[in-house]
Each structure stands twice: as C-alpha cells, then as structure tokens.
C-alpha cells in the first residue's frame, strides 16, 4: 500500500480478544501513512447482552430481527461498548482513533431491507418477514454523504 491510501477494514467485535493482533496491524499501517477506516461488528456481544436482558433473538433469512427492545440493546452494545473500546484500544497501542457512531456523528445512511416472502413476493404484504430496524447502506459513498466530516477526519489522520 502507498502512503495516503485509505484502507477499510471490517472486523468483528471479538477483535478485542486477548490473542488478536488486528488492531496492532491497523496501528502499524497508520504509522506508515495508510489511512485506516475500521468498520466493526459485534454480533456475539449483542447476543450475550440479549440473553442477559431476557430478550429472545429472532432471525429471518439469517438476519437478526430488530424490534424496539433489540434495537436498544444493539445501540448500547455497538456504540456504547464495542465502538468505544476499539477506539480506546487503538489509541492505547499508539494509533489515533475516534469512535464514530449514530450517537455521536452519523456517517452512514441506509434503507430498510425488504426480503421476499415464502411465495417470492416482496415482504411488504407479509408482516412475519419484516426485519424491524434492520437495513442496508445506501449506495452514496462516505465523502458524498458527509464531505465536511470526511475532510475533517482525513486532515486529522484519524482511524475511524
């Protein structure tokens, strides 16, 4: 990779585990001038939090159904725990990271997913196939959605 290249890394929330070196690799790339953007998951942590809260997980076509109770847990786990911990760990390792999420700075926008029903018709007519708050990213790239934020973060050299 060349200096000033942008690298988008999708990692699992479990990257915070004891034996994973992914974050060290990201910091090493940043030190060499690469501009990493980290996108993370947290499915296992969400599932544990749901069990702890007594909320039963539902999946439709392999996707988590997100009702209001689930959304509250997902928000707390992803933004309040996983996102902050990943950024803090990158900073501890000598990198420069800023946690971005819907609670602090919206950077991604989406639309609701519509899955086909059992008969192949769009799910709109079949409530059982609605996924609640689950959606997909719109196709506009990050800088087009928030050019002000993209420039500010890029100038600061932050891992986001």
TrEMBL record:
A family per Pfam? AA_kinase
Ranges of compositional bias, category Basic and acidic residues: 148-160
- Which keywords are on file for this protein? Transferase
Q: Which GO terms describe its molecular function?
A: acetylglutamate kinase activity
Query: Keyword Oxidoreductase, does the record have it?
Result: no
BP terms from Gene Ontology: L-arginine biosynthetic process
Please verify whether the record's keywords include Magnesium: no
Q: Where is this region: Disordered?
A: 139-160
Q: Where is the Aspartate/glutamate/uridylate kinase domain?
A: 6-112
Query: What is the protein's given name?
Result: Aspartate/glutamate/uridylate kinase domain-containing protein
Q: What is the organism field in this record?
A: marine sediment metagenome
């Amino acid at each position: 990779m060349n200096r000033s290249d942008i690298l988008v890394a999708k990692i699992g929330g479990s990257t915070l585990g004891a034996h994973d070196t992914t974050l060290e690799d990201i910091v090493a790339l940043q030190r060499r001038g690469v501009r990493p953007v980290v996108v993370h998951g947290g499915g296992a942590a969400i599932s544990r939090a749901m069990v702890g809260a007594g909320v039963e997980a539902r999946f439709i076509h392999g996707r988590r159904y997100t009702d209001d109770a689930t959304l509250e847990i997902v928000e707390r786990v992803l933004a309040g725990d996983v996102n902050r911990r990943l950024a803090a760990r990158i900073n501890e390792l000598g990198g420069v990271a800023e946690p971005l999420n819907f609670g602090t700075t919206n950077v991604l926008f989406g639309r609701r997913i519509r899955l086909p029903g059992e008969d192949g018709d769009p799910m709109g007519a079949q409530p059982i196939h609605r996924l609640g708050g689950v959606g997909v990213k719109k196709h506009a790239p990050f800088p087009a959605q928030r050019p002000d934020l993209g420039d500010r973060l890029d100038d600061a050299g932050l891992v986001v």
